[in-house]
Amino acid sequence: MAHAYTPGLKVSSWLDHRCKRMLPIKGDVLVEVGQEVDANDVVAHTEMPGDVYPVNLANLLSLPPSDVPECLVKSEGDQVKEGEVLAQTKGIFGMMKKSQKSPYTGTIETVSEVTGQLILRGPAIPIQVKAYVSGRVVEVLPEEGCVVETKGTYLQGIFGIGGETNGSIRMACERHDQKLTPDLITDDMKGCVVVGGGQMTDAAIERALQVGAAAVVSGGMDDQDLRDFLGYDLGVAITGSERKGITLVITEGFGDIAMAGRSYDLLKAREGCQASVNGATQIRAGVMRPEIIVPAGSDENPVSGSEGQVEGLLEPGRPVRIIRDPYFGVIGQVSGLPHQPAVLGSGSKARVLEVKLDSGESVVIPRANVELIEG
Amino acid sequence: MSDECFSPLFVKPLPRMKTQFTLPLSALATIMLAVVAVFSGLSNAQNPAGGIPAPPSEINAVDVDGDKGEAIEVYWRLSANDPSASAMPDLSTDTPAQVTQYTIYRRLADGTDEYTEIGTQTYGVTTFTDSNVKQGVSYIYAVTADSEAGSSAMTVMAYPVAAVMQWFDYEKSWMGLILLFISAFIIFYIGLARSGKELKVRQIAGLSAVDEAVGRATEMGRPILFINGILDINDIQTLAGLTVLSRVARTAAEYGATLEVPTARALVMTTARETVQEAYLAAGRPDAYQEDRIYYLTDEQFGYVAGVTGTMVRDKPAACIYMGAFYAESLILAETGNHIGAIQVAGTAMPSQLPFFVAACDYTLIGEEFFAASAYLSGDPQQLGSLKGQDVGKLLGGGLLTIGVIFATLEVIWPDMTSIKDVRQYIDGNILGSDGLTMTSVEKGSDQWFEELLQRQRDFELNQNALESGGIDA
Amino acid sequence: MSQATSHETIKIDTDKVKIILATDCGSTTTKAVFIELVDGVYRQTQRGEAPTTVEQPFADVTIGAVNSITEIGELAGRKLVDENGRIIQPATDTEGCDIYISTSSAGGGLQMMVAGVIAEMTAASAKRAALGAGAIVMDVISSNDKRRPHEQIQRIRELRPDMILLSGGTDGGTTEKVVELAELIAPARPQPRFGSEYEMPIIYAGNAAAQEKVGEVLDEGWIDLEMVENLRPVLERENLGPARDKIHDVFLEHVMAHAPGYDRLMNWTDAPIMPTPGAVGDILQQIAKDQGINVVGVDIGGATTDVFSVFDKTFNRTVSANLGMSYSISNVCAEATMPSVLRWVHFDMNERELRNRVKNKMIRPTTIPQSHEALVFEQAVAREALRLAYQQHKEFATTLKGVQQQRTVGDTFSQQVGGQTIVDNMALNLLVASGGVLSHAPRMEQTAMMLVDAFEPEGITKLAKDSIFMMPHLGVLAAVHPKAAMEVFERDCLVYLGTNVAAKGLGKPGKKCFSWELNGEGISESGEMNFGEMKLIRLGPDQTATITCDPARGFDLGAGPGKKMSGEVRGGTVGLILDGRGRPLALPEERAACKGAIGGWVDELELYPKVEEAIPATV
User: Of B52, C210, C344, C485, which is least packed with CB atoms within 10 Å of its CB?
Assistant: First the structure.
């Protein structure tokens, strides 16, 4: 085991967060350094080259490909509309001419003598990049994008579905371990980020979708419900491009697990504030976790005292979350760090640590199976 | 489609059995008998004889079963002077009374006419079929044994007989049952196919090879040549070939290969064009369809072959596919294709051409495989279902054949085992023969048969009399 | 090794080499091994590990490499790296090394897109060339992949390959189709992974007659077009060597040059840096050639499973993306279905709860099974992942398609289609396992059983595992110093688990499958195997013995159905496994019977400790 622990998810009441807002291809950046932006402001835009449609003129006109260029009515670079004549054959003595109309609107990009193919480029697709979080532009990368900085509460979830969205935080559950059931979601939660406690049930997701909530955040969910919601069994944890109309974020894992009390309290403290949520998850080299960002108002001051511990160090007294069965989702404190590897129930030898659970019980867990709760 | 043309042992002949085979057979028998009669007459001519033979000892007649009342079978016992009557006929001695033939006479039972000769039968034979009777009319038959010297006295039937129409011919009951059984399976499988159940059709190598052949043509930048046989559209093989063409065209459209279809019939060209166009449409490449590539050459068999081989040698197609009815041109085409290094797939139901295709082509769909491929490709529940149903028939036929062979062999090994003989006879006589469902029937013309028949006729008479007298009493 | 031919390799006097240092820069860890000449033979003596440093904040792969080498240096008591962070070469008595080599799969390895005219023909050959060179094939574009041209263009756009291999057409064959493919690539303008200044290398290995026209179409500023010989000059023959070599060249010149720190690393090494899987393929080919055997190797990782095979000197490699034990574990369960996974488990488990556990492993990929149940379940998943990966491999490793067949009338009823698999489990001699779940299993018996269950070897098959995943290092070493590579491979790299003897065929449970007689040094045993039984005979790592098997009717152990066969078996950490379960391996459909059967095998092979023996997790 190269790593003695798994880096935990960031849960912080006060964090300087920088978001890189990049265009997929070069374009125009619309903001300047120092500018205050709102989550929904467009910061950069560009036009993506349109879709490409090949039209095989040689076949359509029954011509050898080499004759295609001389039959063209339009030339390369011309704009054509759907239905406009692209090419016409010479016919016999000027009679029996055959012509071919353009099936799409676009620009003629190339015409090939080898294949008799005409490549038509559809109209450009405009792409706009929004600020996503409210904050201040701290850096502009010419033609490519910008960096928006915001200060406020920042939470990483473990897994999410759906892309970027934002709305004001509404607490649906009263406790961090209360199940999110449909009756807790009310019609006035339209456009809000609904925060639950424990497991989000499929009925609750259905209800949230119905009232038009922007996002649902809760402790856990059942795999079966996820499958029902997506319509397929998720094979690899690469998400974010789903078009379900809602963004879901779970903070702890699959199953009936309560949201960590600290995360719940943080969100509760910011109830009513605007939050930006992104469900995109990518668990590969270069991990990406879903996130919830609640920018602080300009008059707010940092909550001091939260950065008590040095980040990333496993030491007695640190809060950890157990992330593997049989104690999945249980939170406790490191109580001992034996040096020697121990034999596990599975028969494997691994480096372990002792964790004192909140219930007072002490258990031995492989170091790979805990994560730090970072603050 | 396929059950019309190439079907398992038992399926096809059944419907025709009654209408075609029974009648010509009896006609044939009559001719043969006549021939035999002539020969026997000749041989007897060399032995001048004297004396009158003894008459046949008994005569009876029955209505022929399973017909529409147009024939009566007459049976008699051989005359004592019949050369076949004794176990070792002594033909060398010139017995004047030696029977050369029997003459059969008939009169109406109501006695309105006299005995007229209706035919003769050679010696040694004891039956005659009178097919010139009126339905429902009772006749009385008589028979004389004839020799060179003259005819014996008439032996006359004791009871009249009439030809009656039967609704069913029970002789082929077994065939009927088997037919019903197979039809039921066909219908069952068609239903199954319709309900969306996947009917498994064995993977046919020749069919999977189509993708390969088309792929090869695409990679090599050469055309695919498809020959739909040389018969017209009304031939079932041409139709099956068109189903395969549809598949080839679809693959060609997907792969972007060029497909060339020279035809020998104008109608086939039109149908092929439709088929290919549809396939290109289905593949989502209607723009790639080139009508000019499907053309008519000539109706002349060898003119067509010359045209096609010319194209083959010039264009060097990378794949040649032959699907349809072929005659002498099969080897010319396949050999040329082989020579130009093309992947060749052939399919035909012409048994005489199959060996050539097998030897010269990469893959061959043999006989029924060709129709199976067509059914599989079309995905038509009717075709698939009948394919599957017929398999049951083939299975049944194969099973029966095996059992029959086993019992026939056993019978030779243990000739005395009656049970083995019975089973063999039953298969032979009842299932395959014309004895219907009844287990043991008394052989017609035997002593027992005469007795039983006479007894029946007497019983009938007695019953009639009793009824009549009873009726008067009442 | 053909790979080395096109590179400038420093001439090394192989006789004088005493110290060899090799590193493999993986995506998460950099592993270094240290090979010394001990008493005339090369032995691997030390190993070191350090996190790979390709990504921020370090962004220099050499830091990780030096860290791992420093660890070795400390263990070996030898100074390997000087004050400037450079490897000391050549070796003196106390410092440095003679040869330094390295492989790399950092940053996701070499990612390629390939294109060919027909998916089963030139495109398949192109894929084989790319996979054989050690690449990950992201997608295969072909004229018949059922996608509309604009969909293909869309796909090319979305991919961010490191390079593209374009092939198609036989020499003198189709030009049109190949140019069409080029016409798809040119407007799509795929974005490379490394910055916009990067020129996209495109290797053209198709119809030689189309080179000029393809060149015209792809004559764009952002493309670096390389032409090599056609990889399928005629449909009957493949010529993958030139394309494979070119891929390695381009990998070094373009891809590696853009990865942080690789320019320095390339200067240090005595042989070109190879993609890790390419090196593994090389060493397996070398073994197969040297010993004249058929080999299958498997490397099961967190996200992907690589299968390598050498049958009759033909090498094939497949990468089953999305079949892995952590990132892809959920996908394995989805593809194989839960009941298929659970049939390998000899006790009952709650399926709904398991589903959640699987997803939790997916989102926290680094966790390890703590309880006995979790281990059994994870190994069940591994069996299915391996089985599926091997199935994909079998489908890919085939004879060539599109070949004209020569027939005689005798073939009438036995027409075989081209493209049959060349993988033959009966002909397989050696099965090598590597990857976490296999090499870190608490008991070797578990590793052996996972291999036997998933690969279903037939006849006599040796089972081995790669002790510390050293095959990549040895693959590169084989190019520079084949003798050292082979010696280390035999002595230190492979840990022999034992030999599996299995009969092909099916029968009734309890009926005789085969009788056997084992004779060797200190061992003389005989017995009879019934169908559905397994037996483990302990045979030490250095022990060999001769087994003679007499199969019952319908069973085949290599000599033909029902024929007597004998052969040599090699012992190992597990021993000799006699497998009377028949092939293809079929587990009882009914759950209770299946549970019973698996339970019996588990007991016979002592796979898992009895439940009461299991050490409680609490203290």
Answer: B52
User: Which residues of chain C from 451 to 490 reach within 8 Å of chain A, CB to CB?
Assistant: none
Pick from B208, B211, B255: which is nearest to C143 by CB?
Answer: B255
pLDDT in tens, C467-501: 888 888 998 998 888 888 988 988 888 889 999 99
Test mutation, A26, A59, A68, A114, chain C, max C CBs within 10 A: A114
CA–CA separation, C422 vs C399, rounded Å?
Answer: 6
Bridge partners (DSSP) of residue C299 are C306, C434
pLDDT, tens only, C224-263: 899 999 999 998 888 988 998 899 888 877 777 777 788 8
Report the b/e string of A252-275 with b at 16+ CB within 10 A: bbbbebbbbebbbebbeebeebbb
Confidence (pLDDT) at B25: 45
B292 interaction partners in chain A (CB closer than 8 Å): 62
- Region B203-377: CATH code: 3.40.50
pLDDT score for B317? 94
| Domain A11-22+147-295 belongs in CATH node 3.50.30 | yes
Instruction: Report the number of secondary-structure helices (H) and strands (E) in chain C.
Output: 18, 22
> B296 in contact with C at a CB cutoff of 8 Å?
no
Query: Start-end ranges of CATH 2.30.30 in chain A?
Result: 319-372
In angstroms, the CA B318 to CA C251 distance is: 37
* CA atoms of C88 and B343, how far apart (whole Å): 61
Q: Based on the structure, what is the number of domains in chain C? A: 3
Q: Give me the CATH topology for the region B47-168.
A: Immunoglobulin-like (2.60.40)
Lowest mean pLDDT among A114-118, C342-346, C603-607: A114-118
- The answer to whether residue A6 scores a pLDDT higher than 80 is no
- SS3 state at A338: coil
pLDDT of residue B245: 93
- Lowest pLDDT segment from A117-131, A311-325, C343-357, C605-619: C605-619
B353 touches chain C (CB under 8 A): no
* Spatial separation of the C-alpha atoms in residues A5 and C183, rounded to whole Å: 50
Name the CATH code of domain A319-372 (choices 1.10.8, 2.120.10, 3.30.1490, 2.30.30).
2.30.30
Rounded Cα distance, A207 and A186, in Å: 9
Residues of B in contact with A60 (CB under 8 A): 287
Q: Is the ipTM of this complex over 0.95?
A: no
Q: Which is more confidently placed, C514 or B84?
A: C514
CATH number at residue C39: 3.30.420
Domain that holds residue C119: 109-239
Question: Are both C75 and C172 inside the same structural domain?
Answer: no
**Residues C94 and C118 both lie in one domain:** no
- C408 is a domain residue: no
Q: Do B287 and A62 touch (CB under 8 A)?
A: no
Every domain range in chain A assigned CATH 3.50.30: 11-22+147-295
Intervals of chain B under pLDDT 70: 1-50, 85-96, 438-442, 468-474
